[in-house]
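Cross-check.
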Amino acid sequence: MSLEKNLDLATPGRYTPFGVVGWPAEFRRAVKANLGNAVVESNVMKTSLLCVASWLLLGTSCFAGYAITNGDFESATVVLNDPNFGFLDWSLAAPGWGHSPGDSTDSVYYKNIHIGWDQWFLLVDHNSNQLGLSPLQGNYSLAMKIDGGGWNQNYLTQTCTLPLDVGTISLLVSAGSSYFDVQFNNEPIGMVAQGDWRYSGDISRFAGQTVEIKIINQSPLPQPPDFIPGYIMVDDIRIEPKTVPEPATWCILTFGLAVWTMARPHRRRY
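Predicted model, tokenized:
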């Protein structure tokens, strides 16, 4: 039996949790009012806890630092293994990334490039380089040049496991969409221009899978007189989730539902 009902039944000679003597009507009304306030405070506390839980569950993204390793190339460390020309080991210049095979791809070029038909990779920073390139964002980008003879594909590669709620892959590329290709397990991903060198493509069908990502240079073969064109720059490669409401939106919805629940008329049983 509820406390409020016990108060109502508290009459002289009847047993209650407060004894056998009844309580004045004014006291019973005051106690009921306080009980109502306690219920409201309890509901507010539950709502607050729900908001916090929603923020923790939805505001903390598993995508931070997840799936793609060193997608922005900011983990580069410039330690030249040839002080006269400037070569960098892959483990220092682009940790986490693999690359296409070729005669000039064992190292990453820095400042200077290889003149010739071979494909190459160049770490671009804010120091001057032979091509006059600057990073697309941050401190570093990676440039890649196709094989001038068209014999070998020029690509970056990385293997990763995708989250279950994966949505898109997004990256910056210093070229039009016809100059590069993105593949997951050798399956092309349709990339759509978003503006400011940003492209994205739907990869939700690969959710939960371990995939090999390839970013392939599809530039036309170098043409006379300089034979240099045929390179692209890439940066800020991201794996992004499906679009979901912001954590603040979930909290507002949860709070609104709780307020609606408290505002519903309840049948008083005492």
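The chain has a mean pLDDT of 76. The domain at 87-241 is CATH 2.60.120 (Jelly Rolls). Passed to J.P. for a second look.
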